Amino acid sequence: MRWENLTDPTSSTDPTEPTDDGRTEHGRAPDAALFGADAVTTRTIDTPEFAGVTFHEIRARSIVNRVPGASRMPFEWTVNPYRGCTHACVYCFARNTHRYLDLDTGLGFDSQIVVKVNAPTLLRHHLASRRWHGDHIAMGTNVDCYQRAEGRYRLMPGILEALRDYANPFSILTKGTLILRDLPLLRQAADVTDVGISVSVGFVDQELWRTVEPGTPAPERRLDVVRALTDAGIDCGVLMAPVIPFLGDRPEQLRATVRAVAQAGATSVTPLVLHLRPGAREWFMAWLGRHHPYLVRRYERLYAEGAYAPKWYQRRVTRQVHELAEEFGIGPSRAALRRRVPEPEPEAEPGPATPTQLTLL
Question: Distance (Å, rounded) from C-alpha 62 to C-alpha 40?
Answer without folding.
Answer: 15
